[in-house]
Write a structure and sequence with these properties.
By secondary structure, the protein is an alpha+beta fold. It has two helices and five strands; from the N terminus they run αβββββα. A five-stranded antiparallel beta sheet has the order 4-3-2-1-5, sandwiched between helices. A hairpin with a 4-residue loop joins strand 1 and strand 2. The N and C termini lie far apart (about 35 Å). About 20% of the residues are buried.
C-alpha cells in the first residue's frame, strides 16, 4: 500500500499527480529518482483515513510494462505522468497481448 501523506506538501503532491495521471491506456510515468516507466495502466487507488487523527491521504497505481512486469507506483514518488498513446504504440501493445482492440 502507498505511503500516507505526512505534510500539507504531500497532500498537494497527491492532488497534482492525481489530476494528470491517466486512468487508462498506455501511460508514461517519471519518478522523482529519474526512472521512466511506460506501460498499460492496470489500476489506480486513492484514499484517505476518514480523518482519524487528522486527515491523511494515499495514492498509487499499477502499470504493466512491455516485458509484462508490473510496477506498483506510489504517487508520492511520481514527478510527472502523461498519456503515451498513438496508433503505432497501440499496435505494439496489441501484438504483445497487453491490450485489445475495443473498437
Amino acid at each position: 500500500m502507498a505511503r500516507w501523506t505526512q505534510t500539507y506538501q504531500d497532500q498537494e503532491h497527491i492532488v497534482a499527480i492525481s489530476e494528470v495521471m491517466p486512468i487508462g491506456g498506455v501511460v508514461e510515468v517519471f519518478l522523482l529518482d529519474g526512472t521512466r516507466i511506460e506501460g498499460v495502466m492496470r489500476r489506480a487507488n486513492l484514499g484517505n483515513n476518514a480523518g482519524k487523527g487528522g486527515w491523511s491521504y494515499h495514492g498509487e497505481c499499477e502499470i504493466e510494462d512491455k516485458n509484462k512486469q508490473r510496477w506498483v507506483i506510489d504517487y508520492l514518488d511520481v514527478r510527472s505522468a502523461n498519456k503515451f498513446w498513438n496508433d503505432a504504440i497501440a499496435d505494439e501493445y496489441k501484438k504483445l497481448g497487453l491490450i485489445t482492440d475495443t473498437r
